[in-house]
Specification:
mainly beta
Length: 333
């Protein structure tokens, strides 16, 4: 007989772990894994992932201004060698992380090859999808203990992103690091977390899948019009003012206007992030509502194989029949 076991469930213990590459490996281990059906990344902030340096060097990288997709990144880097460093080369790098929740399972068999139990769990798996090294400023490959170095830098941000984003079940994070390439040994590094904001002009220009109609004031849906009179793209933590006029709206017992998020994250969940009830009878002449865009909502983007987008959806509950619905895309930053 086969027995299914969900590791890490209520009242049980899991030894499963998740991992992320340097320099985003600060909390590697059990915190990055959980029971089948769980979401370990929901309780992880992207900045917690960063390990700022290894034991051979300490320092900091300070930005002159907040970083944004498609713009220049300037600042100052300074570091001090704790021990002798003798590297083949060293450079300032911009690195981008994609960290995903993934579902794993493992079956156990008896001596006759019959499955006796199956373990299922969720763990996180991270990869660096960008590792751009820059020749300026020149970084010394060799340092003596106690030796310090300071320089200003100016590098380009990723032209099209993606921005820093926490999708709940996946994370896109960025860092600046100075890395020393050590022959036959572990590299040394000093790193700084880089919040990279989405550029509203990219959305306005219709770059990728997130622009176009998601920034239009009014979008038709059949004979209906769904309008957003507050500024677009809508900032996370703000209120989105939505007007709906639906001349052919069917009658129903209840209605609502909702903000939905949609994502292709491997373990991602789609669903309603804001909802306001309405009287369906008001739709024919027009109704206005305010939808709260959650603070911390991931910006609209597509990149690194991930995407997240939002739609305003208007629904009418019809007794003994399927709901009637119309929708339009909206952009969030």
């Amino acid at each position: 007989m086969s027995i299914s076991i969900n590791l890490g469930g209520f009242g049980s213990f899991t030894s499963r772990t998740g991992s992320s590459p340097e320099p985003f490996d600060a909390i590697n281990g059990g915190r990055l894994a959980g029971a089948s059906g769980s979401h370990p990344l929901h309780d992880v902030r992207a900045e917690e992932l960063l390990r700022p340096h290894d034991d051979a060097v300490t320092g900091e990288i300070v930005l002159d201004h907040p970083a944004m997709v498609g713009e220049g990144i300037t600042g100052t880097l300074r570091f001090t060698a704790v021990e002798r460093i003798d590297a083949r080369k060293a450079a300032l790098r911009l690195v981008g992380l994609r960290l995903d929740e993934v579902t794993r399972s493992e079956s156990h068999e008896d001596a006759d090859g019959h499955t006796t139990s199956t373990e299922s769990w969720v763990e996180t798996d991270g990869t660096l999808f960008i590792k751009d090294a820059f020749p300026e400023p020149p970084i010394p490959a060799s340092l003596q203990p106690g030796e310090t170095f300071e320089a200003q830098f100016a590098i380009p941000a990723p032209r099209l992103g993606p921005p820093t984003a926490h999708l709940g079940e996946s994370i896109v994070a960025w860092a600046l690091e100075v890395r020393w390439d050590i022959a036959m040994g572990s590299d040394h590094f000093v790193a700084a977390y880089l919040p990279l904001a989405q550029h509203p002009d990219l959305l306005r220009a219709g770059v990728g899948k997130q622009g176009g109609l998601s920034l239009a004031a009014g979008v038709p849906a059949g004979d209906a019009m769904i309008s957003v009179t507050s500024p677009l793209p809508a900032p996370a933590g703000s209120e989105m003012v939505v007007g709906v006029r639906w001349p052919s709206a069917p009658g129903g017992s209840k209605g609502r206007v909702e903000l939905h998020r949609r994502t292709n994250a491997p373990n991602g969940e789609e669903g309603i992030v804001a909802s306001v009830p309405i009287d369906p009878a008001t739709l024919k002449g027009g109704v206005e509502v305010r939808l709260a865009v959650p603070a911390g909502a991931a910006p609209s983007f597509d990149g690194a194989g991930l995407e997240i987008n939002y739609v305003v959806r208007v629904l009418v509950d019809r007794r003994l029949r399927s709901d009637a619905a119309i929708e339009r895309p909206v952009a969030v930053v």
